[in-house]
Design brief:
heterodimer; A: mainly beta; six-stranded mixed sheet; five-stranded antiparallel sheet; 11 strands; 0% helix; globular; B: mainly beta; seven-stranded mixed sheet; four-stranded antiparallel sheet
Chain lengths: 111, 115
């Protein structure tokens, strides 16, 4: 099995850069995904790291290091609309290929 | 393209009742996933269906069950409802292509309240 850990809350100001970390304990997984969920809304897919390294998609970047059991989501040029919860997620490589989401990090962007 | 659709959007039940939630995936997606999200908490994996078969289930009691139809739509059934079943039930779909990790596309969920 596996467990994912994320900080519960992060606060930053508009225009700043924020990094949301995700550490995990797992025997094996296919890759690390990130999802964004606004209050009252559905989670939306942000990025996926199949391999170690950095993936960039506009203002958002995601990083994975399997050797360090660690990944992060980097949000640049923060905007008020980025205030949301962010979840990391993995798909277990083992039997059944279970899906596990982290507890989520609530990001508050202040003016 | 139309997104994942779920019905109903809200539902109020009492303890001991049974409920059926429905989900229509994005066209071309063969996999459907169900999650439970209690208020203010993360997503707990419930069930995964692909090509009409249950591929995996999370750590939930047997009173949580479901099925996937030939058109890939899906139902989640919960029997003998308990107060702690109050939550947002999210359905997601993806293209299932073997071992690759296709992104999951979520519906807006069904808010279930147990009185």
């Amino acid at each position: 099995g596996q467990s994912l850990e994320q900080p519960s809350e992060v606060t930053a100001v508009e225009g700043a850069i924020v990094q949301i970390n995700c550490t995990y304990q797992t025997s094996g997984f296919y890759g690390l995904s990130w999802y964004q969920q606004h209050d009252g809304g559905a989670p939306t897919f942000l990025s996926y790291n199949a391999l170690d390294g950095l993936e960039e998609t506009g203002r958002f970047s995601s990083f994975l290091s399997r050797s360090d059991s660690y990944g992060y989501l980097l949000l640049q040029e923060l905007q008020m609309k980025d205030s949301a919860s962010y979840f990391c997620a993995v798909r277990d490589r083992g039997y059944g290929q279970n899906f596990v989401f982290g507890p989520g990090t609530r990001l508050s962007v202040l003016p | 393209e139309a997104g994942v659709t779920q019905s109903p959007t809200h539902l109020i039940k009492t303890r001991g009742q049974q409920v059926t939630l429905r989900c229509s995936p994005i066209s071309g997606h063969t996999s459907v996933y169900w999650y439970q999200q209690a208020l203010g908490l993360g997503l707990q994996f419930l069930l995964w269906y692909d090509e009409g078969e249950e591929r995996n289930r999370g750590n939930f009691p047997p009173r949580f069950s479901g099925r996937q139809f030939p058109n890939y739509s899906s139902e989640l059934n919960v029997n003998a409802l308990e107060l702690e079943d109050s939550a947002l039930y999210l359905c997601a779909s993806s293209r299932e292509t073997g071992v690759s990790n296709q992104p999951q596309h979520f519906g807006d969920g069904t808010r279930l309240s147990i009185l």
